[in-house]
Amino acid sequence: MIKFLKFVPVQLTFFLMLGILVGKFYNFQPTQLAVVVGFLLLLLGFQYFRAKKLFEPSVVFTILVFLISFFVGISSITYKNQLNKKLHYTNSSEFVANKPLTALLEIQKVLKPTIYFNKYEATVLQLNNNYTIGKILVAVVRDSIENQLEVGNNLVVKTEFMSINKPQNPYGFNYKKHLQNQQIHHQIHLEKSMVLKLQDKRNTLKGVASKFRESINTSLINNGFKDDELAVINALLLGQRNTISSELLESYSGAGAVHILAVSGLHIGIILLLLLFVFKPFYYFKNGKLIATFFIILLLWVYAIIAGLSASVVRAVSMFTALTIGMQLVQRSSVYNTLVISMFFLLLFNPFYLFEVGFQLSYLAVFSIVWIQPKLYDLWKPNYWLPDKIWQLFTVSIAAQLGVLPLSLFYFHQFPGLFFLSNLVIIPFLGMILTAGIIIIILAILDILPQFLGDFYSGIIQLMNRFVEWISNQEYFIIQNISFSLMTMIAIYTFIFITIKWIEKKVFYRFVFVLLSIICIQSIFVFEKHKLQATNELIVFNQSKKSIIGNRVGANLVISSADSLTQSNYAIKPYLIGTGIGGDLQTIKSKNVYKFKNEIILIVDSLGIYEYKTIKPTIIVLQQSPKINLERLLKVIQPKLLIADGSNYKSYVGLWERTCLKNKTPFYSTMQKGAYILK
Question: What percentage of the chain exceeds 70 in pLDDT?
Answer without folding.
Answer: 95
